[in-house]
Amino acid sequence: MEVASMLAAEPFTDEPRCVCPVIAEFMRTYNDEVDDVRRQDLFAYASLVVNTRRDHISERRRANMCLDWWLAGSAPQRMRLRRILWMLPPSSAVRDIEIAHRAARWAAASPARHADALRLIEALAGAKPTQIEVAEATPAEPVPA
């Protein structure tokens, strides 16, 4: 997040005003929990999240994206946790930040989740898939002769 603050010409901080608090919490926690190899990949995402701060509705939508992503990859017992988190007041920003924090910790616990965590950051920022990912996902069309 410090890199994002510098890119946005804000004071050096890990809580830049230009980044959605949900995205910032996910990235801060993930950065703190992963090894140095995975941490290096996060530099490329700093510019992607600049100017993502919007309104509380956007923060709630992003928190729900984190929650859905986290629970989809978790054991069925996590559904009970979802109900507990949903019991917090709907306007509670604390709920949204806590969800992002827990999702990031879960993602960081396994190197196998790294690529998915990066894709989640892209989705949270509203980014389109990169050309490389699109090329890998769809077979090349034959060139007409």
Let me know the average pLDDT: 80
Assembly annotation: single chain
Q: Total number of helical segments? A: 9
**Percent strand:** under 5%
Helix-strand string: HHHHHHHHH
Q: What is the rounded Rg?
A: 16 Å
Structural class: mainly alpha
- Name the helicity range: 55-70%
Instruction: State the shape.
Output: globular
Question: Mind sketching the topology for me?
Answer:
Layout (H helix, E strand, L loop, with lengths): L1 H6 L13 H13 L2 H6 L1 H7 L6 H17 L5 H9 L6 H16 L5 H12 L5 H7 L8
Characteristics of this structure?
145 residues, mainly alpha, 9 helices, disordered C terminus
Can you walk through the features of this model?
- Helices cover about 65% and strands about 0% of the residues.
- The protein has helices at about 1-5, 20-35, 35-40, 45-50, 55-70, 80-85, 95-110, 115-125, 130-135.
- With about 140 residues, the protein is an all-alpha fold.
In short:
The chain is mostly helical.
